[in-house]
Amino acid sequence: MSLLTNPDGTVKVYATVDDQEEKILAAYNGVGSAMRGTKEIKAAGATNAVYYNLTHSTCPAWLKAAVRTDAAYCEGRAAAFEARAKALRAKAASLNTEAADHELAAQFWRLDIPSEDVPSGPKM
Q1: Residues 55/63, Cβ–Cβ less than 8 Å
Q2: Can you tell me the distance from the alpha carbon of 88 to that of 68, in angstroms, rounded to the nearest whole number?
Q3: Where are the strands (E) in 73-112, listed by range?
Q4: pLDDT tens profile 3-19
Q5: pTM of whole model > 0.85?
Q6: pLDDT tens for each residue of 22-36
Q7: How many C-beta neighbours within 10 Å does residue 65 have?
Q8: Given its phi and psi angles, is residue 77 left (phi above 0), alpha (psi -120 to 50 degrees) or beta?
Q9: Longest C-alpha distance within the chain, in Å?
């Protein structure tokens, strides 16, 4: 298991790093945890500790490179994208079926039905 992944294979989003030594110190799932963890690491003596969102564009190049070399992290990210794609495809199939039903209903309402064939209600 990688420092950047959870036991179930999902990925962590935030990492506390030492920017001067270019070393990953810890990783977290949420920003609150990252802030608390970074504060604790600084209190323990790592004065250069900062946290980054691993998916954000402001993440330094050295950290992006380190993340890309972590096979478990990359597999976790790929699995998350595949799961989202599968969900979107299922939703798209459902929406396509619903759209076809609406098109049939529209076609029904556009039929040219002569007025004498249209049943009328009782006259009062």
Answers
A1: no
A2: 26
A3: none
A4: 999 999 889 999 999 98
A5: no
A6: 999 999 999 999 999
A7: 10
A8: alpha
A9: 92
